[in-house]
Structures are given as C-alpha cells and as structure tokens.
Amino acid sequence: MKIMSNEQLIVSYRDALKSGKEKEWIKILKDEIERRGLKPIVNR
C-alpha cells in the first residue's frame, strides 16, 4: 500500500465502502485505520 495521510486513508475507506466491490481492499484499509487508532465516521 502506498503511504497515505490519515485523511487520505479515511477518504479511501469511505469510497471503497460506497463502491462495495473490493472487499479485500476494504479490509486492508480498515486494518490500517484501526492500527493508527482512527475512527472513521460514516453517516448512514
């Protein structure tokens, strides 16, 4: 994975969730978010 800022990571995660296609990419992003201690807020 390329190096991303926290903001880029959250935006990529939200975009991946919206598309819902790449399950493995969603998991990788989610794991990285949790590792960094971030909390992505998704309003649904």
Molecular structure report:
It is built from two helices and no strands. The chain is mostly helical. It has one domain: Helix Hairpins. It starts with 5 loop residues before the first helix and ends in an 8-residue tail after the last helix.
SSE layout and pairing:
Layout: H1 6-19, H2 23-36
Helix pairs in contact: 1-2
Protein name: Sporulation histidine kinase inhibitor Sda
Pfam families: Sda
Keywords: Protein kinase inhibitor
Give a quick rundown of the structure:
Pfam families: Sda. The protein has 44 residues and is mainly alpha-helical.
Low-pLDDT stretches: none
The CATH class label is Mainly Alpha
- Give helix and strand order, one letter per element, not per position: HH
Helix content: 55-70%
Oligomer category? single chain
CATH-defined architecture: Orthogonal Bundle
CATH fold group = Helix Hairpins
Q: Which structural class best describes the helix and strand composition?
A: mainly alpha
Organism: Neobacillus paridis
GO molecular function: protein kinase inhibitor activity
InterPro entries: Sda, Sda_sf
Keywords: Protein kinase inhibitor
